[in-house]
Design a protein that fits this description.
The chain is mainly α. The chain has one domain. α3 packs across α4, α3 packs across α5 and α5 packs across α6. The chain is flat and about 50 Å long. The relative contact order is 0.21.
């Protein structure tokens, strides 16, 4: 189901971007979110880490020249490190009843990069809309 979800997510993200001009947090993000739709805490934590990555890269851009590929790499690396820190320290040492890990290692960085490009609200809403469409298509055809 992973292959179908990612493929469908890429296709629907592309169509959505062409129709609206809005990015859904990276081409692969809606496919992964559709797979983890039954685990909303993980989706929420992925957005939280993406938001933190967005804030860190935005603050760094006041002191360092970050644009284009550098900004993309900074967002992905920041999301990766924050996701790793969350899973290493927060999950293991603080008892939590829900699974609050981050989805993937690069997903938060992809979302953060799109947040930098078009804004936080537009990115979150776009990602959720495309995720719902992908999830519905998966339920219909798989």
């Amino acid at each position: 189901m992973l292959i179908q979800a990612i493929g469908t997510g890429i296709f629907i993200s592309f169509i959505f971007t062409e129709l609206t001009g809005l990015l859904a947090g990276g081409l692969i993000v809606p496919g992964y979110f559709a797979i983890f739709w039954d685990q909303p805490a993980r989706i929420l934590m992925t957005f939280v880490v993406a938001l933190l990555s967005f804030l860190i890269v935005s603050i760094l851009s006041n002191f360092i020249i970050i644009y284009s590929r550098r900004r993309f790499m900074a967002a992905v690396l920041t999301g990766y490190v924050l996701g790793w820190l969350l899973s290493t320290y927060f999950i293991d040492f603080i008892p939590v009843s829900m699974d609050v890990r981050v989805i993937g290692y690069i997903v938060p960085g992809l979302i953060a990069n799109d947040m930098i490009k078009q804004g936080i609200i537009k990115t979150i809403i776009s990602a959720l809309i495309v995720t719902v469409v992908v999830r519905l298509l998966l339920l219909l055809f798989i």
